[in-house]
């Protein structure tokens, strides 16, 4: 039981939305699609749901090709970014919709539908809203209704398009935990789109980073953060400090920082060194960096340095000796990851 | 000052003619009005107008809704051209709209001799009146629906599809309820115009009393006969229809406005 996407391609006029995308989602997995806007996330979801047609590539769900399967026969639950609730129906009718439109032979009896709807609404914690209309409930409640409506058809795959995009920060935080818990309890397989890295890293089993219609890296959140596959992923996830360097004879050399040599497997030529702010160490004077300011925020201290004409901020762990403002010091770049430019 | 001027102009242009119609109709008392309405030709004119409306309005409601769905939901080459074409009946003189049918189906028209051989009468008969009226009133429904459907977007319909609904179920359960007030608005205007149309119908009517005269044409015929009471009585009936239409239109606009503000 899984979802297999092979070499998906889609163009809108001259714009390439999906450019040979490959991805496998395992059963029970909670996978986040993370990428800047225009990276093809929403196109991918719509193609999976059968709302957009692909130019090429294959979608296989549980071993069955979705090539000729209509959207309404796919049994894929889709929670739209702005929920797309049926505005003229009550919450209960919205949730019942997927059951009521089934063919007579397969449709459960009315009483069963009613019970199932109430059960779902109770599960979402909005049992008392059954008779309200979508415009009479809050954004967070609407999202739960949209989710209940999608789950009513017992989807083999649940798709969520920016599920928290339209909510304020406080509601968002609570809903994240709740949704993750719901996913686990119901044994769902979910794919959710977001451009918020904190959301993706906090909730997902694995995160797929998209750029320009391709997947740059799929990995668990901690591996993605610790071992980014390329410079894009490194800079997209978390804070990054970028330094230019030259690779020669298997080592990166930095202009204006004499004596610093970082071994690397990167091919010779111009390259980029990337570090997290806490990965730069400060060495005793003298050195090429000048301390501009010190700022204690929480357990870490933020040190602003000028290095080869550029300003950068370094995080110093507790208990590390910090230089005084105005002094010069050396920098330890040994933890830098070197990527080809 | 400007407001006063506008008010005065409105009184002269709108209220005064209406008042004249009703006072003229009642100038010889209620009995004269009832007699004028009891006239067989008057009955025939009313019946014909209703028949034309009963055929054209549902047809235009169905076709207009289909056209609006097509133009508001699908992207295809020639879409903007078609959107413009839908407005054609409004931009062309009603007389031309009538003449087109005469040129097509009249005795000397393209299909005239063929129809004649098969003894099918379109011009100077009910089918001609229906065709001319349909053509003239076609734009009302699409014009009421397209802006609303564009504004609402297709997202609810897409949601219905992913939940397993067929195209028809989606239309019946999602699209139609969302556009119902606008559709009624379009149907109302379509109906008002269908009953009140003069120019296009005048060309294809043939002016046979008791057979091919609709109410507006009958008013003209009576007027030409110096039958003032009769003319103004039927005119008053048409004006009443206009007033009812106006009231319903206000009601629908209020409903639609409420619907919209609720969505925001």
Q: Over the alpha carbons, how many angstroms does the gyration radius of chain B reach?
A: 22 Å
Mean pLDDT of chain A: 89
Low-confidence stretches of chain B: 260-264
CATH architecture of the largest domain in chain A: 3-Layer(aba) Sandwich
Q: Tell me, what is the CATH class of chain B?
A: Mainly Alpha
CA-based gyration radius of chain A: 25 Å
The fraction of residues assigned to DSSP E strands of chain B is: under 5%
The first-to-last residue Cα distance of chain A is 40 Å
Strand and helix order of chain A: EEEHEEEHHHEHEHEEHHEEEEEEEEEE
What does this molecule look like?
- The complex is a heterodimer of chains A (341) and B (264).
- Chain A has 341 residues and is an alpha+beta fold.
- Chain A folds into 2 domains: 2-235, 3-Layer(aba) Sandwich (Rossmann fold); 239-340, OB fold (Dihydrolipoamide Acetyltransferase, E2P) (Beta Barrel).
- Chain A is built from 8 helices and 20 strands.
- The radius of gyration of chain A is 25 Å and the shape is elongated.
- The model of chain A has no long low-confidence stretch (mean pLDDT 89).
- Chain B is mostly helical and 264 residues long.
- Chain B has one domain: MetI-like (MetI-like fold).
- Chain B has helices at residues 2-25, 29-38, 40-73, 79-86, 88-91, 94-105, 112-117, 126-137, 140-152, 155-162, 167-196, 199-205, 215-224, 228-263.
- Chains A and B meet through strand 6 of A and helix 10 and helix 11 of B.
